[in-house]
Write a structure and sequence with these properties.
Helix content: 25-40%
Strand content: 15-25%
Strand order of the largest sheet: 3-2-1-7-8-9
Bound molecules: 2'-O-acetyl adenosine-5-diphosphoribose
Number of helices: 11
Length: 242
Amino acid sequence: MKDLIQKTANVLKTAKVITFFTGAGISAESGIPTFRGDDGIWKKLKAEELASFDAFMRNPDLVWEWYSYRRQIINKCIPNSAHKAIVEAEKLFSKVHVITQNVDGLHIRAGSSNVYELHGNIERNYCIKCKTFYNDVSDSVKVPKCTCGGLIRPDIVWFGEMLPEKELEASEKAVYDSDVVFVIGTSAVVYPAANYIYMAKRLGKYLIEINVEQTSVSNLMDKVFTEKSGVILPQIMKSLQR
Ligand code: OAD
């Protein structure tokens, strides 16, 4: 592992712009469950019954309660050493971008400057009728209503919905401008987000994966670390500071 870290450090020494593309795995060490795998959320609950607009309209209280429950878990969690290592990277490179599929806001809470949240943020909510945003909502079991009477939903991209345009544009530019792209803690099976990995490959970017297991994109990588991101990322950053 030491040798792999050293080789990676040698590549990173000449890099100027870096992108970190992250998924639920990076927050696992903060105590937030991932979606897939043996302990994953979607093993116990059906995504289509909770994470779609149809599901929300069918049973708004159930969907609201589920997101309130997750919001409570996330609020108690704090950024881990992987989130912090990415913040440290800003001192080492001229530009650091973070494209994340996570809705937990931990990259922003850790202090990263350029974070593009492709799937929204669980802290934000908006009225489905008049689109007014609500950041502080109670963790009630019943879905709250806007002053206009519309239901308030979490600002999360559900299955079948479009990703936010501004984030898509910023992410595309980030990958385009980068010398190295890290792919961290994602099963890379949810699209269009996973497309950024293929885009990076097509553009000839240097790709580094950090994941506790092999994924369907491991074969695209220039380097693969099969380890926890909270263990490896700080070591990589440390090797660059020497
Ligand atoms: P997944 O749950 O699909 O994948 C998590 C990945 O993290 C797996 O490949 C694990 O092996 C890996 N992993 C677990 N612990 C790790 C650790 N400590 N260090 C490094 N890797 C670790 O999560 P995502 O790929 O993020 O969508 O899922 C993508 C989307 O599917 C999510 O954004 C969510 C979900 O439906 C929305 O909420 C819209």
